[in-house]
From TrEMBL:
Keywords tagged on the record: Heme, Iron, Metal-binding
Species annotation: Schizosaccharomyces cryophilus (strain OY26 / ATCC MYA-4695 / CBS 11777 / NBRC 106824 / NRRL Y48691)
Record's protein name: NADPH-hemoprotein reductase
The keyword Cell inner membrane appears for this protein: no
Residues annotated as domain Cytochrome b5 heme-binding: 63-139
GO molecular function: cytochrome-b5 reductase activity, acting on NAD(P)H; heme binding; metal ion binding
Xref: Pfam families: Cyt-b5
Biased composition (Basic and acidic residues): 10-26
Biased amino acid composition, Basic residues: 27-36
Keyword presence, Iron: yes
Region of interest (Disordered), residue spans: 1-48
Source taxon at top rank: Eukaryota
GO CC term (a single one): cytoplasm
Length: 140
């Protein structure tokens, strides 16, 4: 390879790699500084274990279509329902596990919180994470 081509090649590599590396460093810094607001011991791993145990956390024996009137009644720390993407979940047990704190969910409890949920984290798979908390579809 001529030196002309060699220099072209190495230049392309360094400009391509450096912004990526800088981005990775920033991401690492952000992650290590990130404070979570879940209760002590209420980790994502513990939540996954609880869900995988299959214990029914929905508070109902069988799923049923939930009207907005019914949903509205479940707006406390002791009895907290939330609708996301057409499904209603009883998230009372999940509250202390929420990485951004129980308050954030409680603020949007008892309503269709799809918009706020998607804004915060459209990548979170609530259907899987809350499968044992499912109360029923949100009625039209
Ligand atoms: C319906 C039940 C919900 C579940 C299962 C859930 C789950 C999660 C999970 C797993 C995370 C960590 C995400 C990560 O590590 O990147 C998280 C963070 C967060 N959640 Fe939720 N969430 C729920 C409801 C909500 C609602 C209603 C809001 C209202 C805005 C909200 C706002 C946030 C925020 C702001 C964060 C922090 C995001 C960040 O650090 O970048 N969540 N949630």
């Amino acid at each position: 390879m001529s030196s002309f081509f060699k220099s072209l090649f190495s230049k392309r590599e360094s400009t391509k790699e450096e912004p990526e590396r800088a981005g990775l460093e920033k991401q690492k810094k952000r992650k290590s500084k990130k404070k979570t607001k879940n209760e002590p011991g209420c980790t994502q791993e513990k939540w996954d274990e609880l869900v995988e145990s299959g214990e029914n956390l929905s508070g109902v024996d069988h799923p049923f279509p939930v009207t907005k009137e019914e949903l509205k009644k479940h707006n406390t720390k002791e009895d907290c329902w939330i609708a996301v993407r057409g499904k209603v979940y009883n998230v009372t047990t999940y509250l202390p596990y929420h990485p951004d704190g129980a308050k954030k969910i409680l603020k949007h409890a008892a309503i269709d919180a799809t918009g706020q949920y998607m804004k915060a984290h459209d990548y979170v798979n609530e259907e899987e994470m809350l499968k044992t908390c499912f109360v029923g579809p949100l009625a039209e």
